[in-house]
Amino acid sequence: MNFPAELKYTKDHEWVRVEGDEAVIGITDFAQRELGDIVFVDINTVGEEVAANEVFGTIEAVKTVSDLFMPTTATVLAINDAIDASPELVNSDPYGEGWIIRVKLANPADIDGLLTADAYKSEVNA
């Protein structure tokens, strides 16, 4: 499994890549493996501020639907249009082309409270 060191992680299996006062968010390699074949991603919070640990959308796999949780309070700026047409990108490239949303962070310092790659790896017993 892949755990890029430059990312931050949540116990709910989201990853965050900070880019200034914005961030890109997706689900981890571990999460996509657990879900199986992803068939649909539903995000209806574009333009909204979503509080930390609140649901910002759902991800549907062949066998289940899971909520997606906001790692830190942020405003959803955009969704990844590529996963609309090709949701399997979340499976094949979870840290790259399979990203889910771009957000504007309410407080970039809040990211410091998220898990490091090593801490997340321990969390999932990898």
TrEMBL record:
<feature type="modified residue" description="N6-lipoyllysine">
    <location>
        <position position="63"/>
    </location>
</feature>
<dbReference type="InterPro" id="IPR002930">
    <property type="entry name" value="GCV_H"/>
</dbReference>
<comment type="subunit">
    <text>The glycine cleavage system is composed of four proteins: P, T, L and H.</text>
</comment>
<keyword id="KW-0450">Lipoyl</keyword>
<dbReference type="GO" id="GO:0019464">
    <property type="term" value="P:glycine decarboxylation via glycine cleavage system"/>
</dbReference>
<dbReference type="InterPro" id="IPR017453">
    <property type="entry name" value="GCV_H_sub"/>
</dbReference>
<comment type="function">
    <text>The glycine cleavage system catalyzes the degradation of glycine. The H protein shuttles the methylamine group of glycine from the P protein to the T protein.</text>
</comment>
<dbReference type="InterPro" id="IPR011053">
    <property type="entry name" value="Single_hybrid_motif"/>
</dbReference>
<dbReference type="GO" id="GO:0005829">
    <property type="term" value="C:cytosol"/>
</dbReference>
<comment type="similarity">
    <text>Belongs to the GcvH family.</text>
</comment>
<dbReference type="Pfam" id="PF01597">
    <property type="entry name" value="GCV_H"/>
</dbReference>
<feature type="domain" description="Lipoyl-binding">
    <location>
        <begin position="22"/>
        <end position="104"/>
    </location>
</feature>
<dbReference type="GO" id="GO:0009249">
    <property type="term" value="P:protein lipoylation"/>
</dbReference>
<dbReference type="InterPro" id="IPR000089">
    <property type="entry name" value="Biotin_lipoyl"/>
</dbReference>
<dbReference type="InterPro" id="IPR033753">
    <property type="entry name" value="GCV_H/Fam206"/>
</dbReference>
<dbReference type="GO" id="GO:0005960">
    <property type="term" value="C:glycine cleavage complex"/>
</dbReference>
<protein>
    <recommendedName>
        <fullName>Glycine cleavage system H protein</fullName>
    </recommendedName>
</protein>
